[in-house]
């Protein structure tokens, strides 16, 4: 009986998903909009700022999850049934995109857009933390939007230019506010996302995890980290919003330091997503916290 009930519930769920997809398709036809899915939050935020309400835009990885720990399920493929563009960061960050490409059998062609193939420092998984790369990603997204939606080309290009100007402004804010800091070392109870950005700003980034966020520090490494913090009289350590805060709290208690948040933006919290926070919004929060943690003085 329980087995039959489970099958019935699964069938109902499948029917509901199909109904949702059908309604979305009809709505897209009605309003003449193309359908776009962005794999992760950075590509979603960039695409949304360039396209606005001209497209039907969804995010593949749900809010509250990040790119490093997302696992593709067969049911996820249903989301692509009426999609024109699938925009992702890279195979290195999202290897499951290859599985989608090889298994997709939709009725119409689906274009896959790798946004980082022309960026610098390609070995970095977190291309969007480099402001030059963010503009390259925006160029790539705009190129594909205009290629399949020619009638809105002028608007896309205008929005792209506005986006780039804001990124240039953001970059100048980082340089200005972080060029005169009493401290230069960011101790991060999280993964190695900000190494490239820190190097460009003349800062030293010390994370406890690798860039893939797959390792956990040993007891010896934790002891060395605590000794480093104490010997350097560090006042603030950083951690990530979507991580369990217990580890950072333990380090904080052992070193009498305060904890600040540093967001790698490889995912977005449900609250920030519902509040329509942009990539720039989250980066400016990072800037505020880094400036405070390193005791930086504005010029």
Describe this structure in words.
The protein is globular. It has 299 residues and is α/β, with parallel strands linked by helices. 47% of the residues lie in helices and 13% in strands. The protein folds into two domains: 143 residues, Nitrogenase molybdenum iron protein domain (Rossmann fold, 3-Layer(aba) Sandwich); 118 residues, Nitrogenase molybdenum iron protein domain (Rossmann fold).
Quickly describe the structure:
This protein folds into two domains: 28-170, Rossmann fold (3-Layer(aba) Sandwich); 176-293, Nitrogenase molybdenum iron protein domain (Rossmann fold, 3-Layer(aba) Sandwich). Helices cover 47% and strands 13% of the residues.
Tell me the strand percentage band.
Answer: 5-15%
The fourth-level CATH homologous superfamily of the largest domain is Nitrogenase molybdenum iron protein domain
CATH topology of the largest domain: Rossmann fold
For the largest beta sheet, what order do the strands appear in spatially?
2-1-3-4
- Biggest sheet record: 4 strands, parallel
Q: Please give the CATH architecture of the largest domain.
A: 3-Layer(aba) Sandwich
Enumerate the spans where pLDDT stays under 50 for 5 or more consecutive residues: none
Separation, N- and C-terminal Cα atoms: 72 Å
Number of domains: 2
- Global structural class: alpha/beta
CATH class of the largest domain: Alpha Beta
What is the succession of H and E elements?
HEHEEHEHHEHEHEHEHH
Relative helix content: 40-55%
Whole-angstrom Rg: 21 Å
In total, the number of strands is: 8
Characteristic key phrases:
4-stranded parallel sheet, alpha/beta, 2 domains, 299 residues, Rossmann fold, 47% helix, globular, single chain
